[in-house]
Amino acid sequence: MADTTDDRQKVADLIKDFRFAMFTTRHAEGKLVSRPLTVQETEFDGDLWFLVPKSSSPVAEIAAHHEACVSLSSNDSWVSLSGTAQLVDDRSKIEQLWNPMVDAWFPNGPDDPDVGVLKFTADSAEYWDTPGGKIATVFSLVKSKVTGERYDGGESGTVEL
């Protein structure tokens, strides 16, 4: 299991390129449920911040079970974060994170009493990255097929945060 500063930086570098995440919680019946959320802060220091309705299902679910997972993906990389989540009562954080896109979900603005701040704190991460994108991936797949060697599609690791 990797656990170096370089690996932590690799995770942070990958996350800054993602805008949307799938946030997974445990439903009251025990099922895992994922929902898309917009990442509100691009500087990853172990925490991710989301603006959510306080009345939403994810907020109720994290009140009962703080454990959560956040996954982010693109055509050439993905990150899966495990950790805990909590609703934070911080009006100044709402103001800090507010942007014109959030108005679509909260037309009454940042003073809407239903606007909440969801803080996700990661304790571990797994990542996979294929530098070079699709062309490098196709090349590696063809090379694997021609040589009969196992596909080595990029860089991956597990990081304790």
UniProtKB/TrEMBL annotation:
<protein>
    <submittedName>
        <fullName>General stress protein</fullName>
    </submittedName>
</protein>
<feature type="domain" description="General stress protein FMN-binding split barrel">
    <location>
        <begin position="6"/>
        <end position="152"/>
    </location>
</feature>
<dbReference type="Pfam" id="PF16242">
    <property type="entry name" value="Pyrid_ox_like"/>
</dbReference>
<dbReference type="InterPro" id="IPR038725">
    <property type="entry name" value="YdaG_split_barrel_FMN-bd"/>
</dbReference>
<dbReference type="InterPro" id="IPR052917">
    <property type="entry name" value="Stress-Dev_Protein"/>
</dbReference>
<dbReference type="InterPro" id="IPR012349">
    <property type="entry name" value="Split_barrel_FMN-bd"/>
</dbReference>
